[in-house]
Design a protein that fits this description.
The protein has 424 residues and is of the alpha/beta class. The chain has two domains: 4-69 and 321-422, Alpha-Beta Complex (Aspartate Aminotransferase, domain 1); 71-319, Aspartate Aminotransferase, domain 2. It has 16 helices and 14 strands. It has a seven-stranded mixed beta sheet, sandwiched between helices. A four-stranded mixed beta sheet has the order 1-2-3-13. Strands 11-12-14 form a three-stranded antiparallel beta sheet, covered by helices on one side. The radius of gyration is 21 Å and the shape is globular. The chain binds ligand KE4. Ligand KE4 binds at residues 23, 25, 61, 116-118, 121, 144-146, 157-158, 206, 211, 239, 241-242, 266, 276, 395.
Length: 424
């Protein structure tokens, strides 16, 4: 595969940006090749600088549930941009998007728009602390909630990919109130609440972990978190930046039937533009400025163009609820094909990860034991066969509504041809 133009661009990019990238996981370092520079994307496909075409199962890490450059989304953004890119003031579109979100996620009685999932998760934690007047929070090893100081502890995603479990530059004081539990182990959460009785403001969790690779919640795990937090007067925060509007129209909270106190949303809710949201019980959100004393702000929060993209995306999903059943069918076919090639697959709806390990992957320790070298070979095999999947063992594959049956057939064919012995 010719990647000369990408390689030349990469050389130049490295002069300006750390690792030549604006986000570490794009650097392809764990899959042993120079990153591709993407020129355009449409539907289920991305096109790189060397005119290679790939079926895209990264979907920009989740926003692309409708596929790239969906006409309805593009038209909405173009219309919004013609009226000006940003006002730094209120506009009616924010209300419309808030209504759409609340229709699908009634737990979000009041919400605030921000510009990234990091901001959404960070702000939800701050609101929880402000509401409960408690300082400690619990997160899970291997879960990733963006790069705010207090949450960069044993995180997943790029931290795991680049073996930086705890980031440099984060003073101990920023993480001393961050307690770590084991995903799918409710007893590890109970033990922390017993040890820090009355001190824990909230538990923040990816309701289906997707940043150590996909690790679905064990039966009863989320229910246990809901019960334990209630018992201890702590809040349950669902980080639905990935699962929101992906697992179901109402996200993981609808899919699993658990109502959190606060939710962080990102990716799909912005339709591919920089927009994220946090929100939840009204009494908690009324602690947020200007109503309350929890301060949070943002120049581009609720940006009109981003709001237009998110609104068009949620409207399209609302107009075509059949998308979710189709995503399930397509994803199940991919899983079946991979498993027929002897691969281990963790899947939750249209999120999945092929793990290179013989043991079941139900938590961070099991995920970390995966053979990242074997994953790299798998990634490159797919890429050479025109299929672009996550350039890291510790990320998810995403399926979109734009992946046609022919796309899925093609992908299944490549997966079935894959034999570990031939490529490890
Ligand atoms: P952003 O700040 O990247 O918009 O969102 C942070 C975030 C928060 N919560 C969850 C569950 C997330 O998955 C993320 C970000 N996801 C990664 C991919 N696993 C973004 C890709 C990247 O870092 O380049």
């Amino acid at each position: 595969m010719n990647t000369q133009k990408s390689e030349a661009l990469y050389e130049r990019a490295q002069q300006f940006m750390p690792g030549g990238v604006n986000s570490p996981v794009r650097a392809f370092r764990s899959v042993g090749r120079a990153p591709l520079f993407i020129e355009r994307a449409a539907g289920s496909r991305i096109y790189d600088a060397d005119s290679n075409v790939f079926l895209d199962y990264v979907c920009s890490w989740g926003p692309g549930i409708l596929g790239h450059a969906h006409p309805a989304v593009l038209e909405a953004v173009q219309r919004a941009c013609e009226k000006g890119l940003t006002f730094g003031a209120c506009h009616a579109g924010e209300i419309e998007l808030a209504e759409l979100i609340q229709e699908q996620m009634p737990s979000m009685e009041m919400l605030r728009m921000v510009s990234s999932g990091t901001e959404a998760a960070m702000s939800a934690v701050r609101a929880a602390r402000g509401f409960t007047h408690r300082d400690r929070i619990i997160k899970f090893e291997g879960c990733y909630h963006g790069h705010s100081d207090g949450l960069l502890v044993r995180g997943g995603s790029g931290l795991l990919t680049h073996a930086i479990p705890d980031s440099a530059g984060v003073p101990a004081g920023c993480t001393e109130n961050t307690l770590l539990a084991v995903y799918n182990d409710a007893d590890s959460v109970r033990a922390l609440f017993d040890a820090y009785r009355g001190e824990i403001a909230a538990v923040i969790v990816e309701p289906c972990a997707a940043n150590m690779g996909v690790v679905p919640p064990a039966a009863g795990f989320l229910e246990a978190l809901r019960q334990i937090t209630k018992e201890h007067g702590a809040l349950l925060i669902f980080d639905e930046v990935i699962t929101g509007f992906r697992l179901s129209p109402g996200g993981a909270q609808q899919y699993y039937g658990i109502t959190p106190d606060l939710t962080a949303l990102g990716k799909i809710v912005g339709g591919g533009m920089p927009l994220a949201v946090y929100g939840g019980r009204r009494e908690i959100m009324e602690c947020v400025a200007p109503l309350g004393s929890v301060y949070q702000a943002g120049t581009l929060s609720g940006n009109p163009a981003a709001v237009a993209a998110g609104t068009a995306t949620l409207r399209e999903l609302g107009a075509h609820p059949e998308i979710y059943a189709l995503l399930e069918q397509k994803s199940a076919r991919l899983q079946e094909a991979a498993e027929s090639a002897g691969l281990r697959v963790n899947r939750c709806g249209s999120l999945m990860t092929v793990f290179f390990t013989d043991a079941p992957v139900t938590d961070f320790a099991a995920a970390k034991a995966a053979d990242t070298g074997a994953y790299a070979r798998f990634f490159n095999y797919l890429l050479e066969n025109g299929i672009y999947t996550a350039p890291s063992q510790f990320e998810a594959m995403f399926v979109s509504a734009a992946h046609s049956d022919a796309d899925i057939d093609r992908t299944c064919e490549v997966l079935r041809q894959y034999t570990r012995c031939a490529t490890t």
